[in-house]
Amino acid sequence: TSYLELSSITKSYGNFTALDNVSLSVEKGEFVTFLGPSGSGKTTTLMIVAGFEKASGGSVQVGGRSISELAPHERNIGIVFQNYALFPHKTAAENVYFPLQMRGVSRGKGLRQAEEMLSLVGLKGFGHRHPKELSGGQQQRVALARALVFEPSLLLLDEPLGALDKNLREQMQIEIKRIQRSLGVTTIFVTHDQSEAMSMSDRIVVFEKGRIEQCAAPLDIYHRP
Ligand code: ADP
Ligand code: ADP
């Protein structure tokens, strides 16, 4: 029962082939990491799954339905990018409330849910602060809370820890794993950091020049010298 199914995805930009025949099945609740050097096709694949980019060929199915048939509000996908992009004039709680607001949830109820989600990511009591009053790691937690508050069926994380220093990064790796396990949300995590991929993933998908080179559990990934 695979939840996400990519079948023979190709993506071209003019004559350039960014993705060449990418196929992948992801199980419900699985934590899958896309690992590979810059330019290998990780983000492009993620953007196609998110529905932000259209594949040149192949198909993407989420929960048994083609992504192209799903309207944006039916996709139910939470996304976090490296440059968190919080709304600077909204408080942390208002940022987290935003996707609920888009779904018609009232302000009172939505802000309460936002506070609960902020507690889950370790930011109890920080809801009234604006992004500029938060550290980089705290801002990234807010972004994570915003991506999770509407109970997405799929969580897409594109180098969410790339801008953080080493200690904070390791702490956040553990936090993200804990939260992902507790919610059981199917997750795709993009990184070019091999140790991060090894420590966090159920399965690692290694990209190389627009193709999937390996796909295996962390301990079964073949290391090249
Ligand atoms: P990363 O390597 O961190 O994944 P990139 O810097 O390669 O990110 O690309 C960031 C974004 O810029 C991509 O999502 C892509 O849409 C866009 N982009 C990358 N390369 C090009 C390009 N040659 N021309 C136009 N847009 C590009
Ligand atoms: P990664 O995330 O692994 O760093 P990307 O998926 O961002 O790689 O990019 C894969 C390749 O596609 C890169 O060579 C990049 O320059 C190219 N690319 C991405 N987006 C665009 C775009 N909008 N126009 C042209 N080339 C692009």
Task: Summarize this structure as a short list of keywords or feature phrases.
single chain, 225 residues, alpha/beta, six-stranded mixed beta sheet, four-stranded antiparallel beta sheet, 7 helices, 10 strands, 34% helix, globular, binds adenosine-5'-diphosphate, ATP-binding, transport, ABC transporter ATP-binding protein, nucleotide-binding, ATP binding
- Discrete helix count: 7
Ligands bound, unique: adenosine-5'-diphosphate
Elements, N to C (H/E): EEEHEEHEHHHEHEHEE
State the oligomer. single chain
Overall structural class, as computed from helix and strand content, comes to: alpha/beta
Range of helix content: 25-40%
Distance between the termini: 36 Å
Radius of gyration: 17 Å
Report low-confidence residues grouped into runs of 5 or more: none
Number of strands: 10
Quick one: overall form?
A: globular
Q: Strand order, biggest sheet?
A: 6-7-8-3-9-10
Mean pLDDT: 92
Strand content: 25-35%
Largest sheet geometry: 6 strands, mixed
Family: Belongs to the ABC transporter superfamily.
Organism: Neorhizobium turbinariae
GO molecular function: ATP binding
Keywords: ATP-binding, Nucleotide-binding, Transport
